[in-house]
Design goal:
The chain is 22% helix and 30% strand. It is built from three helices and twelve strands.
Length: 202
């Protein structure tokens, strides 16, 4: 047995193993935090109308569930490209046209990231959804049900009802930042265009 092989077979010192594990976990967390901060700082901003519901999370306080009229249930007729021949989970890419007021409208849906979205557009990537091969025959009918990781927003305890009330009156909007990779983060929650909550970078 060679010297290097002998070293590899030796059990790792528990202290060293613990340090390596801690470094890995801290590094992973730091990367997640930095990725979120980068999206909030540099991502393209779009404005979406929301339809929040106000349940209570006993562990973390109040939060609102956000559903977005434009992106949560886009028309299937906007889909283009090849539909899968076998059932599988996959994300969907939404091409959004952004107006001068930064309000976004879905103009196209695909399974592949468009190579060139063009000026005045933003590419948004959904969470993976189940794509049934049988659905290809009815692809132009109905709506997709999509999520983007921005469907829950925590607020100070007791303040969620204000947002729900504004929702009922059609007054609630959200400013969303979208990275070049299509990831979304809620930057601000607004009522009547005025910022109610703004997310810190860190």
């Amino acid at each position: 047995m060679t010297g290097s092989a002998s070293i590899l077979r030796k059990p790792l010192n528990p202290v060293i193993a613990g340090i390596l594990c801690a470094v890995f976990m801290i590094g992973s967390l730091a990367m997640m935090i930095q990725s979120r901060a980068s999206t909030l700082r540099n991502g393209a901003e779009i404005i979406l109308k929301t339809e929040p519901i106000d349940p209570r999370d006993l562990m973390r306080g109040d939060y609102v569930r956000l559903q977005y009229d434009e992106i949560s249930r886009p028309d299937r007729a906007l889909f283009s490209g090849e539909w899968p021949q076998q059932d599988r989970y996959a994300p969907m890419w939404l091409t959004l046209s952004v107006g001068e007021d930064r309000a976004a409208t879905v103009t196209a849906i695909s399974l592949e990231k468009p190579l060139d979205a063009g000026e005045g557009t933003v590419l948004l990537k959904s969470e993976p959804v189940m794509l049934s091969a049988d659905a290809g025959d009815q692809i132009s009918q109905g709506q997709f049900a999509l999520k983007f990781g921005i469907e829950r927003y925590y607020v100070p305890e007791g303040e969620g009802l204000e947002i729900e009330s504004a929702r009922n009156a059609g007054r609630t909007t959200a400013a969303i930042r979208v990275s070049k990779a299509g990831a979304a983060q809620i930057a601000r929650l607004m009522i009547d265009g005025e910022t109610l909550y703004q997310e810190p970078l860190y």
